[in-house]
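Notes, Module 5: Reading structure tokens.

Key idea: the token line is not a picture. It is a compressed description, and you learn to read it the same way you learned to read a sequence, by spotting repeated patterns. We will look at two proteins. The first is printed below with its tokens.
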Amino acid sequence: MRDTDVRDIVRSVLCKGLSVAQADQLVKATVPVRVAAGRAVLNEGDPPSGLHLLLRGEVEIKKRGPDGRAQSLGTIGAPTVLGEMSLVTERPHSATITALTDCDFALLTRAQFARLIAGESLAAYKLLATIAEVLAGRVARLDEKVLELTAGKDCPAPVGELAAFQRKLFSEWRF
């Protein structure tokens, strides 16, 4: 895939507010990665590797349940972003992502992202703002789901535990 094609995907998927020059800066900081169908892209529990921009292909996202078995969270096709939390936290990957088809990625490693931030790259800051917006949206959807599940007086114990977890999450909120 040509850099100009990757740049256009970066501008449409990662951050619509990027100028062409800023998108080019991010593309130049990425590494092309190919993953064959059936192979893992990221493994739950592994150290964070960076943001994977899926350029071509389809992947399945799985997470281990309390019983240790992997449960499918869904499939997603290109173009999209995976592993974005890797850029903002040092926590291990939260899910396993497996290529369902041959996939092409542009990988922005944590190290490259750190260099962009250290160089006060406006593109990196815009990307960070976009990631924050996405994560905030996910928290809002989680809040809505918790409220929906706990709306009944006699909610099952696991739902009550989820509500308690939500309260704990907000009581321990720190910046």
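Here is the second protein, with the sequence above and the tokens below, as before.
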Amino acid sequence: MTDLQFESCIRLMIEKDRNGLKDIYTAYAKQIYRVILGIVRSAQDAEDITSEFFLKIWESAASYKSGSGHKRWLTVIARNMALDHLRKNKGGTVSLDDDEQTLNETADNTSVEESVTAKVTLDKALSMLTEIERQTVELKLAMDLTFREIADMLGEPMGTTAWRYRQAVLKLRKIMEEEQL
């Protein structure tokens, strides 16, 4: 979704037209869920927070500042909601129930096994990153944010963000290679 399309959706939402929210939900629900899941590490909590997220942007549509980058705006809200949830609940727990259910719905058992193995390996690799490394990787990949947008969100120089991302990717590659041996 382009900035112009997003701003059009925001205008619809301000006018209480739910089609604007529907279009934003369609475009970003999966990415927002991934950002939140990456922080709270619980599928159930991530689903709940994602639902609350879309209610929140419906209520706060008028606060969006045109030209400020809609992906950044969405991600900052999602990230803050997830962090607030963790603060309120003293940390999250990892739940794979929903992922396992989705995987079990796959007809081919071989692909289910491969999917489970790949997910477990990726989760294990991500868990070996520091919190800030994991967040940087997830913001870059899940929300397709630029290093500048991530740096602004985290309040740090862009070079630091780019360096941390590169180091995290190298660390992930090494972990994944070791897992395959």
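Summary for the second protein:
- Confidence is low (pLDDT under 50) at residues 91-120.
- The chain is about 80% helix and 0% strand.
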